[in-house]
Write a structure and sequence with these properties.
Radius of gyration: 38 Å
Number of domains: 2
Shape: globular
Number of helices: 9
Structural class: alpha+beta
Helix content: 40-55%
Order of helices and strands: HHEEHEHHEHEHEHH
CATH class of the largest domain: Alpha Beta
Strand content: 5-15%
CATH architecture of the largest domain: 2-Layer Sandwich
């Protein structure tokens, strides 16, 4: 608004000042064309151009003063170009180090042999298995956010428990081999990770269930109120749905609406803002639908 206003003031002020000599000249010509007046009339008439000139100058000066004050008060606004917008720093944490909260493990990215998180604890939330069971542990770094997630879900009348957390390399080997015996290797590879390729070994992955076991480790979990709430809100606590629908060709595993991976609130919120891409897509990694070799 101030740009057009300033232009108007400048035009108005200059117009007033430019009219001064024109007005004086016009008035003089009018006086010359009129019949002679008495001394008293001439005295009055001679004062008129002076008054007009003073008014014109005064109006012009007011316009200039207003323009100056307006320019002083107005501070130029900083414009931020797209190139100046700060981009998310993808180098904050390693995606290769098995101990990093951003580590990416899939069928082509195995964890370090024998990796075990530095500190494993039982979170203070409902547990689906015995408290002393290995898979009822999680990496200590995720407990605060995990407990807050479950607590705030409970405040909304939802019941969420830990179905499975940390699994050692040997524990995962037993699970995988059991599935291979039941379903064959090709089918087992679609829903179970081989040893050193499981996110559960990082202690950062959590399988959520309802305490009553309804739809546990099944696709129908997504249709339960708890599943819907988790898919919608887990990112606020640093968790992402790791194996989304229609991403098997990228992440290597079929849809698992119960499997959430902790990456921290900052990255989880960034992924959510970008439309929930997979970790592979976000970090420009090659798809990992199959194991190498």
């Amino acid at each position: 608004m101030r740009g057009p206003l300033n232009l108007y003031i400048i035009f108005h002020s200059l117009s007033m000042l430019m009219l001064l000599p024109v007005s004086a000249q016009t008035y003089t010509l009018r006086l010359m064309s009129r019949p002679a007046k008495t001394p008293k009339q001439s005295s009055k008439s001679s004062k008129l151009p002076i008054v007009v000139a003073i008014l014109i100058v005064f109006a012009g000066l007011i316009g200039v003063w207003f323009l100056i004050m307006n320019s002083i008060e107005e501070e130029p606004k900083e414009q931020t170009s797209d190139s100046e917008i700060e981009e998310f720093d993808r180098s904050q944490h390693s995606i290769d180090d098995s101990s990093s909260i951003w580590v990416i493990t899939n069928k082509q990215r195995p964890l370090q042999p024998g990796y075990t998180p530095e500190e494993l604890v039982n979170p203070d939330i409902p547990l689906y298995g015995p408290r002393d069971a290995e898979n009822m542990l999680v990496d200590a770094r995720i407990t605060n956010d995990l407990e807050q997630l479950v607590r705030e879900a409970e405040e909304e009348g939802l019941n969420i428990a830990l179905g499975s957390g940390y699994r050692s390399e040997s524990y995962q080997r037993g699970i995988y081999n059991n599935y291979v015996e039941q379903h064959g290797e090709e089918e087992a590879d679609r829903f179970s990770a081989r040893p050193r390729h499981s996110e559960h070994q990082t202690g950062l992955a959590v399988d959520f269930v309802r305490p009553d076991g309804e739809c546990s480790f099944q696709a129908c979990f997504a249709d339960l109120p708890e599943g819907e709430w988790l898919i919608e809100n887990a990112y606020r606590y640093g968790f992402i749905l790791r194996y989304q629908e229609n991403t098997e060709d990228i992440v290597g595993y079929q849809y698992e609406p119960w499997h959430f991976r902790y990456v921290g609130r900052e990255l989880a919120e960034e992924l959510h803002a970008q439309g929930k891409p997979t970790l592979e897509e976000f970090f420009d990694l090659s798809p990992a639908p199959d194991y190498e070799g």
